[in-house]
Design a protein that fits this description.
This protein is an alpha/beta fold and about 220 residues long. The protein contains seven helices and seven strands, in the order H-H-H-E-H-E-H-E-E-H-E-H-E-E. The protein binds S-adenosylmethionine. S-adenosylmethionine binds next to helix 2, helix 4 and strand 2.
């Protein structure tokens, strides 16, 4: 009886800690959004439903995995729940506030404080390529040139049959068709959730010819940065 009571108090304590963390993440996120809305791209961290949706196809054999715009680490936690080892995670984050949180929460992951559009210039995975990229980047608020650099840079690290998962609050894929065409990529909607603020959809972006070469190229004709 006493043991059951102790367990119930401990479990209640865990729930309180989880709720406090969620609230403090919400306020931290909101403050960052007020300071730089275009960079942060959302008023609140992604919810559990979206985190599960964007990671649902990822398996332990996909490691190492690259996460772009990791923020407070909600997708990171979902990746760990999918069986990816923390040491197999590379988290790219541009905000110094979020970067410190990620270093503290995931001490065995590699946290890179950098602009994801520079990925093509870094030899991040010598001798190994990533099986999946999970992106929380606000692509809709970025220029065409930047979206192009992010995708071509990320795919330079991705295995031939690997995938890039991107969420969006918009009604269509946030990577415009001419960019997909130019890079030899295709996008497939894998699902959507209304249990997120705001509701969101997820796209899987892959190479059209997995064993062809995705060229790094310039801005497509007719598109401006
Ligand atoms: C919509 S939030 C991601 C939220 C994250 N999934 C979460 O729930 O905490 C977008 C994130 O991308 C980061 N970001 C924006 N532009 C970036 C860039 N060029 N390179 C790397 N990170 C970037 C922002 O700092 C922010 O943390």
């Amino acid at each position: 009886m006493a043991t059951a009571k102790r367990r119930s108090i401990a479990s209640h304590g865990d729930q309180v800690v989880t709720a406090v963390c969620a609230y403090s993440d919400f306020f931290r996120f909101f403050r960052s959004w007020v300071a730089d809305p275009l960079r942060v791209g959302a008023v609140a961290p992604s919810g559990d439903s979206l985190s599960r949706l964007i990671t649902q196809e990822i398996r332990p054999s996909d490691g190492p995995v690259l996460e772009l715009g990791a923020g407070t680490g909600t997708f990171t936690r979902a990746l760990l729940a999918r069986g990816i080892r923390e040491s197999d995670l590379t988290l790219v984050e541009y905000g110094s506030d979020f970067m410190r949180i990620l270093q503290h929460r995931f001490p065995r992951a590699r946290v890179l404080w950098m602009d994801a559009s520079q990925l093509g210039n870094c030899d991040l995975f010598p001798g190994a390529t990533v099986g999946a990229v999970v992106s929380g980047l606000p692509l809709l608020s970025m220029s065409t040139r930047k979206v192009m650099s992010i995708l071509s840079g990320a795919f330079s690290h991705v295995r031939p049959a690997g995938s890039f998962y991107q969420f969006t609050y918009g009604l269509r894929c946030p990577v415009p068709r001419p960019i997909l065409d130019r890079l030899g990529l295709k996008a497939t909607r894998t699902g959507a959730t209304v249990r997120n603020i705001p509701p969101a959809a997820v796209y899987r972006i892959t190479r059209r010819q997995p064993f062809g070469i995705t060229r790094r190229s310039s801005i497509p004709d007719g598109l401006t940065a």
